[in-house]
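Notebook entry, structure prediction.
Reason for the run: the old model in the group folder had no record of what sequence produced it. Starting over properly, with the input documented here first.
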Amino acid sequence: MDVIYWLIPSMIFVGVVLVILLMISVKNGQFDDLEGEGQRILFDEERTNLELKKNTKNKVDNSSF
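New structure, fully documented this time:
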């Protein structure tokens, strides 16, 4: 019975600490975009205009052979 007197307040304390940590992490933006990183890895990055111009120039130069 003495264990319960110590166990209940200690678990309430641990619960309060976890809720405070959760609130801090939400406030700092930890959970802003949960799906963005998972989706970003699946798709290629958009190529810049400079890269596209280089590739089309190389294709034209190679097709003259």
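Summary: The CA atoms of residues 23 and 29 lie 10 Å apart.
The old model has been moved to the deprecated folder.
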